[in-house]
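User
New here, explain this?
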Amino acid sequence: MPQKKKFKICDTFINHSSIVFFSWVTDTQWSVDYLSEGIRQFGYTTEEFLSGEKNYLHIIYPDDAEWVVREAETHTENGVKSFNLVYRIVTADGRIRWIDHHTVVARERREEGVCCVGAIMDITERKTIEQELIDSEAKFRTIAESTTVGFFIYQERFVYVNQAICDVSGYTQEELYDMNVWDFAHESSKERVKEIVLKRCRGEEVESRSDDLELVTKKGEIKIVRSMAHTVPYKGGWAGAGTIIDITDIAEAKEQVNLLAHAVKQTDDMVRITDRNGTITFANEAILKHSGYTLNEVIGQTPRIFKSGKHDKAFYRHLWKTILAGETYRGVFQNRKRDGTLYHEAETITPIRDMKNSVQYFVVTGKDISEQVAWENELHRQATTDALTGVYNRQKFMEELEAELDKFRRYNNTFTVIMVDIDHFKEINDTYGHDTGDKILKELSRLMNSSIRKTDLFARWGGEEFMILSPSLSYENAIVFAEKIRGYVESFVFDDINHLTVSIGITVPKEEDTFEKILKRVDKALYYSKNNGRNQVNFM
């Protein structure tokens, strides 16, 4: 092939290449005396440089120009044959591009400087990728070193660990880099960890999942960590990369919660949890066993399922006002079982707040106190009831009289005290015996109890004497009322003795009256009835 044709082919290749070829003289302006057509990719023409309108220094990015010139001068003065520089240039439309500049020193010295031949290649995309990788690694390191989550990369030994792993393990980074990954795993999991690590290093498929492992720290302490790892390409091979989170406190708290949950399930106390609206979300075995309901019948319901109807609306209004205010409520409920049986339950309702201090749940603990209530009621009955007749006793009457006197003092609510005594009762005992006397007392009690109002209180005062406390009864009505009682008794036919009579005294409260004055006055009225012929009513 003719030499001229060869040169033409080379010239065509050079001018159509993305690499820009040129020669210049290292004078003060870096004048260009040859330039290939590739310069057009940056928006310039060869004519602009060959005519002297532009020189090479014109297109170097200003911040890079000084050190590029300095580096070139240093290399040429030191007699190097070639060198590479990477720097930025500015295109004709003002864009900045990265170039890789390879220079060959021609050694053809001229008066104005050294002649150099060079080739520049646009490496902006590569630099962008490199920068992104640098930025990505910097971000990763920033994140990894500023979090409590442990980050690691290993190839049998650790090749990267962050400070969080050092904190949890007690080892320094240098110490960890000299350790196999499985070295600080607990004996119970050491072999399994080693097997997984070696598989990942061989690039084998390993299921990516979180594992809770026991880790032995440098001090010999055992900590529980949750680890998640993946197999990743690394420097031409394979590696394991993942995270470690110290969950020792969480695991211990979980164990305590499980223990508590087990205790709640097994306790004899009835326990249920409701949401803010009262919907039951949890019920333990005790409440199911006691109430007769199944879990499916209780969950999703409200406590109305146990409602007996024995408490009024005011009771429940007070309850809800208390617990919605975040306060603990304690009270005794009369509830109903599935079969309709009523029982008394002492309940404690405790509000549970969220992180914003808002009430979200209620924990209800209860104990069946039906036997205790029955026992207390029996004690109260015995303390307030006459053993022979079954009516209220002297103590109960005195308590109620004090209460009525207090209402009279506060609100001027009047009341009447009526004292009844059986005429000639000693003769009945002497003639018919005490058994008959007791029988007469019982019959009279039943008769008088059936003759009074529901609001009245009837009590045995002692021996053959009885008391009636009648709230809101005026003097006139009290006389009529007492006369009716006297007449009922006189006309009633008693077993064994047929007939008997009673004497009655009446009084009403007066200003500045005392408990003792009222009793003394009604006793005086009764005494007057008995001394005035018996079987009559008198008022004082």
